[in-house]
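User: quick one, sequence for these tokens?
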């Protein structure tokens, strides 16, 4: 996940650098006098772009927060033996649950046998 964020930031920085750098020979600028209406339209578009970028940054921050808070949530893990029906319960973080093993809150690593199944219950 961290690599995705770093890659995204690198792409944004690269795009900003590409847009801001002068490419090729400097061109002579022609003085164009825009009407008041055109200036207002440009200003409105610029503000709209800034608002859109702010909304996208806020949405990304909310999504990252939700994903992190979900992965650090404490859940109850039930290990059920399918042959005799015995059930053992443990507390673990959602991110610490792998396919056939998990790590409890007190640091114990639990491996689940092939005849057992894992049930995850949100607290």
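Assistant:
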């Amino acid at each position: 996940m961290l690599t995705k964020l770093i890659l995204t930031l690198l792409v944004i920085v690269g795009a900003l650098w590409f847009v801001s750098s002068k490419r090729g020979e400097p061109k002579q600028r022609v003085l164009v006098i825009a009407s008041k209406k055109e200036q207002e339209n440009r200003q409105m578009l610029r503000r709209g772009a800034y608002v859109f970028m702010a909304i996208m940054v806020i949405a990304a921050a909310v999504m990252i927060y939700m994903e992190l808070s979900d992965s650090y949530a404490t859940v109850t893990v039930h290990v059920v033996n399918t042959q005799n029906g015995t059930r053992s319960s443990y507390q673990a973080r959602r991110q610490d649950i792998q396919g056939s093993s998990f790590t409890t809150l007190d640091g114990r690593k639990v491996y689940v046998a092939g005849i057992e199944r894992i049930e995850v219950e949100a607290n």
